[in-house]
Each structure stands twice: as C-alpha cells, then as structure tokens.
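Batch job 17 of 40 flagged for manual review because the log was empty.
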Amino acid sequence: MFMPGSQNEIEEKKKQKKISCDRVEGWAIECVPKHLREGLTISVQEFVCGDPACSPVDTGITIIYKSGGRGMTGIPMEVQEVEKEDVKNSMPDEKTLKAWFNNEEADWPPDFADGSDVPAGAPELRFVVGQPVQCRIGSDPVNGWAKGIIIQCWYRENSWPSHTFAPYKIALDDGRNIFAPADVDAVIRADGEVIVE
C-alpha cells in the first residue's frame, strides 16, 4: 500500500542526514592544518557494523588527497549524534596527514612500534586497567549504558586490519566482554558519571 506521508518522511530523513554529513565534513576539514588542505577531499558517510560488540552504526570519515594518499577514521555513532569534539578526537595527527598528503603510507590509528603495550604516538587514555566504567551499548541516552571494568588498554583482535586498535577492552558486569572503539564520553565514561545528552 502506498502511503504518501511515508515518502515525505523518508525524504526528510535523507535531507537531515545530508545536513549532518556536511556538518561533520566541515569539522573534519577544520581539523586539517591549512597547509595540508590543498587537493583534499573529505567524504562522510554512515556504515553498519555487523559486530555485536561494536556500535550498530558508525560514521566514517574518508580523507583523500589528489596525490593518491588516503586514509580513514571512524566514530562509533550515527552521524547526527556526532559532535565537533568527537571529530577532533578521531582525526589523524599532523604527521599522518602530511604523509597522506605526500602519498606516503601512514597508519591511523597508530601502530605498536616496539611491542610495548602502547601504540607509537598513541594519545594518553583517560582510564586504566581495573577502573570501573560505563559503556554505551544501546541508543537510549539513559538506559543504553552498562557497567563494567577496564581489563585491557589498546585492545585488538587478530581478524582486524593490521594497525587497528580499540582503546579499551571491558568486562561488563553482565559477564560479556566488549571493546570501546573510541575514548570519548559518548562511548565510555567513568562509572557514576552522568552526561546530559
């Protein structure tokens, strides 16, 4: 059965998603130093993650230079939920962007360089092993959180592309082990902390 109102709602959702993608693209461009913006194209889109341990929908930011250099970063939430700070925290550092600008290989997020427990060039994490946290496991801003304990920093799985890491692996109170794909309040926060969304 054809419902004209439904088509209008679909079109409005597409329009709002496009506005959100354009907003995130603008923030991403702002994060790139001006001297590295020549020949830069940034594309923002959502993709569905089939892994039950991660966010159901991620926002991908693809960075492409005319030189052929390219890379990508992701934010574990729908594009309309992304804030400027989320973009800032997920964007590659200047060294990585310069390499891509020059069509050189560079990994983002950073790789473990010396076999240590911390990837080379990795930012300092907010939480440590053993610290109680709350993790975002659903879209509801109030009930979409679960309590747990950090059991590993800079976690990775063998099936992931090389040089790909999650900041934390968490043992939830309900017995599940999950990972936090980003070290941002929208994904993981200190236990007892309440953030108004």
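Reviewer: the log was empty due to a logging misconfiguration, but the result itself is present. The mean pLDDT is 84. Unflagging and moving on to job 18.
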